[in-house]
Amino acid sequence: MVSEKLNAILIRALPRRAYVQATFLLLWLDPLNLRLHNICGPVFHCYSCPLALFACPIGVIANFSALHIFPFVAVGFIILVALLIGSLFCGWACPFGLLQDLASKISRPRLRLPGWMTHFRYVVLALTVILIPALFGIENNFSICMFCPAGALEGAIPLIGGQILRGGEFVWMNPV
Amino acid sequence: MPAKKYKLVGCGILLVLGVSFLVYGDFFNTRPVYPKNKVQPNQESELFLIREVTYGGVALDRLNQIRQTYTDKPLNFCPT
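ok -> structure tokens follow
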């Protein structure tokens, strides 16, 4: 009953979804400079972005895998968010979802992927977030944080942009 | 009807699991950092978790410096 009402509200709000996402983006961009990186956020927003309010759950799990420590807080938080809110955050609040929505407005030939590819995300999760960081360390080039598109778009580009705006040297930062 | 019951039970188990993980990680899964100036040779590079998420983890490097990982890295750190 509650989910039906929520669905009805969301369907009515669908044309204004971009505004909702943009409002949430303002929140994730840490306007008050609180930098609550001790808290795992429920969205895909790289903590290394100079404007990140929370820590990225995927980044936390990958880094903890590299340390061979089970991330109880991050996993517990993800379980609770998934249970109580589901994937609602992905479509309505996640900054990366907003970027994907904006990218989808660009006209281009659409590729049709085979059905089994929908399960490929679990392979990516198991390999790049858990196994590769655990076995080869977080600085391995196939660890998620080293090639994460959210990290590049939300972390690297704002940092480089900031450097350029400050009149600094153009440096592609890489700690390795 | 049984399907709904199983779904509720599954949700309950997940809820308990999630809350347990959060409580355990927040209040019990912590260990003291080994004193910086009293590191034994065989304890170099051993990882110590002081607090989950807040510090991610702490490693002592070969120079006995505490190397904090992930969430306490400097502002200009960016892996990509």
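Chain B has two domains: 1-29, 31-80.
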